[in-house]
Input
Amino acid sequence: MNGTARTARAEPRTSLGEHLRTALGLTGTHLGCEQGDCGACAVLLDGEPVCSCLVLAVQADGCRVETVESLARGDDLGPAQRALLEEHGLQCGFCTPGLLMRMTHARRTGAPASDVLGGHLCRCTGYGGLRAAVERHCAVEARKEDQP
Amino acid sequence: MKPVAFDHVAPVDLAAALDLLAERGTRAAPLAGGQSLVPLLNLRRVRPDVVVDLNHVVGLAGVRVTAGEVRIGAMTRLRVLESHPDVVAALPVLATAASAVAHPHVRTRATLGGSLCHANPAAELPAAAVALDARLVLRHRGGARVVPAAEFFTGPHTTVLAPGELLTEVVVPRVPELRFGFAELARPGGSGYPLVVALLGVAVEGGVVVAARAAAGGVAPTPVRLPGVEAALPGRRCTADDLSAGLATAPVDHAAGHRDAVLRSLLRRITAGLE
Ligand SMILES: Cc1cc2nc3c(=O)[nH]c(=O)nc-3n(C[C@H](O)[C@H](O)[C@H](O)COP(=O)(O)OP(=O)(O)OC[C@H]3O[C@@H](n4cnc5c(N)ncnc54)[C@H](O)[C@@H]3O)c2cc1C
Ligand code: FES
Ligand code: FES
Output
């Protein structure tokens, strides 16, 4: 869990997203639709983006999970967070944690900016600022601060 | 919403999974990528006593290519299918169809088998399986049967799968002389199923079409072959103009109203790439 081993029991019906928020106290990950549509809940599971509402917590047993809490070092924001801030890519912040994890994954894997916004719904920004932030972020090659 | 309480069992051995499914019948739900099942659990539209998680069953994922066919394990993830070098080389249209499904974080988990068993009538991979004449290997405790894709789907979200039965493998014959194209009308960004999906393949000798295969999704309760289109193209020259002329007079079975217009325009779009 963000680089540290964590143990917590989960009922089989509990989603990974709910488990993160309730049992592990990591409330940065947001649950919106719980149907795979909004992308607010996206986390990295063994390095790959997934909707944490559509993975059972028990299925993540023994896996590496990265959430939005892993992105800043103390008060220093990570690169995806800086891009969103500088391009006005957020207002209420509900969609932000999922998008940040997708942006982080995209830069690590060299995926194009055009791959990132699909599957992330934002009710506030009209996507202009988001698109600018994603493009700015993905234009830079991965460096050390992008790694887990 | 929380699903109803259920047990979660994750066997590593196919026989153990089949035993459990045989014993629990309709009270058990096989879990593949979970990208359709978990929303249905969350909505309490599915209320199983036990979820049989296939993600650890040995031997259900992977791609094997032989001279005559490509055998793909049911638990092969779409993320793997869309970029697997053997699939891209031997069945490029299947890789293209897989990459058109949803968005990347759904494809990380979703599987070929789950996509076929979920049987959404407009889904990309069921239509591709029908177009490619795939055979589906279905196993139950103590036995197996092989069902052609065209006979697997019986209606929206329904298939010939019996309680206790699992799809374990998808066998796709290689027909290298057929060159396929794929097109769909979908909302951008992968949010939700397409309206219509089309696949069209032609075999060409000396610039003339000698055989054609066509299939569509989203125009009928199941994915369908388009025999009218398959009959109209042989004898045509393989140019966008001549193929389009052939399509213009072909009866496009099944599709009605605006879906007919969408399907025809998708088929025309494919012919431009087949030239
Ligand atoms: C936001 C979103 C967008 C999507 N967009 C598309 C799209 O554009 N096109 C598209 O085709 N799909 C789309 N999907 C659906 C996604 O591709 C499906 O989840 C997938 O088709 C089902 O595969 P799965 O591995 O997730 O199966 P699961 O959800 O695990 O299972 C689906 C069903 O099949 C059964 N099942 C699974 N595997 C087997 C097996 N081997 N044998 C017997 N029964 C089995 C399960 O019991 C369940 O009933 C979308 C999903 C989401 C969440
Ligand atoms: S909460 Fe998971 S996609 Fe909306
Ligand atoms: S900032 Fe409010 S939903 Fe995206």
Observations:
- Helices of chain A lie at 16-22, 79-86, 96-109, 128-138.
